[in-house]
Design a protein that fits this description.
The structure is a homodimer.
Chain A: H1 12-26, H2 33-39, H3 44-50, H4 54-67, H5 78-94, H6 100-105, H7 111-125, H8 131-156, H9 167-185
Helix pairs in contact in A: 2-3, 5-7, 5-8, 7-8, 8-9
Chain A binds a DNA duplex (19 and 19 nucleotides) through helix 3.
Chain lengths: ~190, ~190
DNA sequence: ACCTGAACACCGTTCAAGT
DNA sequence: ACCTGAACACCGTTCAAGT
């Protein structure tokens, strides 16, 4: 006879993880405070204790989660460094397709804004010409590529799992990235 | 004494226009069947008569509206033609910032899918190397650029009017577009 | 400190009813 | 044919109350 397991205490992190699960599996429109509560075995109202701003703040946190990336500064050229940042960003976005719309729509805040500043500084030190413009172009490229790639997989198979990715996506991304970096070089 | 004006009959087009107004001015989250009915001087339930699929179909229609563009095939090189398509797409998306998330998220259907096919054919005839890959890269670029540009204006001034645009947006777009086209050339 | 229950204003959508 | 009113299941959020 299994002992009555004491419930894992609620936390901001567990809430965000559960919210990402729901958004990825069922879509943003079905991410509901009540459904989220169900997934966490808790009444919806308990969530407000851990996420002060309510649902709007929760959505902000989800956007931050998929746009906060970090790269160890090691590579040789600014091109290699730029590639590393773009790959990391793409991977983070593809991991949670359900919240891509939030990531592209909400202006970067907190850790997401900090990551952009860090990326800008690293690329400046690595010798990139106009770091803010370069980072802006890279962010645009990564956002757009991921959006089109996800549209493509959903168009090909409306019930595709997030794991079942577009095989053309990788190569299309690499080609476009090379062209972009060549363009940024001057 | 003003005569009692007979109400303009409801139509799918009027509904879509009113929905775009609300989304642009107040955000997608505040676009509600009831609010939409108010704006049209009609009960919310009347909308279902003109938009069979309900709210989901309405959102699809909004996405189609801002991603359906057309370009008169006249320019000389495939580069000029590609520029024309990218400019037209960007303009259409910037005109309705409130529904960008839908445009990037919903796979192209109906007139939007037709526009992509048309663009692909025109560019093939104009001599572009791999038309589907090229169009995919252009769509990604336009989506990403517009998303970052709108993030940027909202970050600079959270209550900026859609008309008050980012001055850097135009030049950043042109620079990136040139780099992309150079990359597509080979 | 952390969670619940009841309550309130608001959603999307249906269906029968009006004109 | 086109619109309305009432109804239903479901939202986000508050607040007092429980432990």
């Amino acid at each position: 006879m299994p002992a009555k397991r004491p419930p894992i205490p609620l936390s901001r992190e567990r809430i965000i993880d559960a919210a990402l699960d729901i958004a990825d599996a069922q879509g943003l429109r079905r991410l509901t405070m009540r459904r989220l509560g169900d997934a966490l075995q808790v009444e919806a109202m308990a969530i407000y204790h851990h996420v002060p701003g309510g649902k709007e703040a929760l959505l902000d946190a989800l956007a931050q989660h998929v746009t906060t990336v970090n790269v160890e500064t090691a590579p040789s050229s600014w091109q290699d460094l730029a590639r590393a940042w773009c790959h990391a960003s793409r991977t983070a976005l593809l991991a949670h397709p359900g919240v891509l719309a939030l990531a592209m729509t909400k202006p970067p805040r907190g850790s997401a804004a900090a990551a952009i500043r860090e990326q800008t500084e690293q690329l400046r030190e690595a010798g990139l010409g106009d770091p803010p413009a370069g980072v802006r172009a890279m962010r645009a490229y990564v956002f757009g590529s991921v959006a089109v790639e996800l549209q493509h997989t959903e168009w090909a198979d409306p019930k595709a799992q997030p794991a079942a990715r577009d095989p053309d996506g990788d190569t299309a991304f690499e080609q476009g990235l090379s062209a972009l970096l060549k363009g940024l070089a001057g």
